[in-house]
Amino acid sequence: MEEPKKSPVFVAKIDLALGGKIESDLTERGFSITRPAYTVFSARKERLSVTLYQSGKLTVQGKDSQELIEFYLEPEILGTFAHTSKEAYVDTSPRIGVDESGKGDFFGPLVVAAVYGDESTIPKLLEIGCKDSKALKDANILQLAKKIRATVHHDVIRISPAKYNELYAKFGNLNTLLAWGHAQAISNLAQRTGCKRAIIDQFASEHVVKNALMKKQKDIDLTQRHKGEEDVVVAAASILAREGFLLGMMGLEKSYGMPFPKGASSKTIAAANDFARRFGKVRLTETAKTHFKTYFEIQDNH
């Protein structure tokens, strides 16, 4: 059964000083006004809604939105008709976005996160500033992740280094392991939301993830694309995945009383040698991904 097609969201940035006029004009047009968190106001009339956020972002969505935009907002508020371009609209169709963190890091877990977005939550993800986690500092990741978890249905799979090494030995291939993690997260969220559409950042041949989904008997319309994080739902998933990785690294540092550098650099090798001296190389299976070339550069002190 196909999901109903959702109308796109129109997004524009305006001067907050215009908020009072817009609210008054919409009230005269029969809109009812409420004031949800992070908004100046939200106006609704039948299936049409207009929301002005405290950041100055204005969103319009629902039936007859085009008429309101063309005959009121553009001439009276925006002063331009440029916003009728396709770029001003955001796809709010229901979908699951998936991304991972930690696959290129010698130390720490592999984390796969899935986020479900639809016409009620995608504007909120845009408002709180979701973008590719690689463009954000760690402190911002942790702050944004809290807001995302409070906004959307989500699923996070954190695979500890010990479990990762066990699964890698079973699958024998990183892409197959990643596909298993993506399929697991999609399956979990699809079961909870009923969503049959997913978007992921492409990391392997298309059939790899589809085969993993088929093993879970999930009929999912899967889209794999380069720079998948340009989709706001995938970007939100990338933030949750990165948060999971950062928390995993913090946990390791607390447990072993030493720093664990991110990535797989010379600093990583130095830290791994330090760990081997303290605890023995064999115990790196508890903290690191042992199929990395880095592992074979470490001195076996014990």
Automatic annotation (TrEMBL):
PROSITE patterns for the chain: RNASE_H_2 (PS51975)
Nuclease recorded as keyword: yes
Keywords, in A-Z order: Cytoplasm, Endonuclease, Hydrolase, Magnesium, Metal-binding, Nuclease
Catalysis: reaction(s): Endonucleolytic cleavage to 5'-phosphomonoester
GO MF assignments: magnesium ion binding; RNA binding; RNA-DNA hybrid ribonuclease activity
Location(s) in or outside the cell: Cytoplasm
Organism taxonomic ancestry: Bacteria, Pseudomonadati, Chlamydiota, Chlamydiia, Parachlamydiales
Purpose: Endonuclease that specifically degrades the RNA of RNA-DNA hybrids.
Cited Pfam families: DUF3378, RNase_HII
CDD domains, sorted: RNase_HII_bacteria_HIII_like (cd06590), RNAse_HIII_N (cd14796)
Domain RNase H type-2: 93-302
Protein name as annotated: Ribonuclease HIII
Primary localization: cytoplasm
Binding annotation for a divalent metal cation: D99, E100, D201
Enzyme kind, highest EC tier: hydrolase
GO cellular component term of the entry, any: cytoplasm
Sequence similarity: Belongs to the RNase HII family. RnhC subfamily.
The protein's required cofactors: Mg(2+); Mn(2+)
EC number: 3.1.26.4
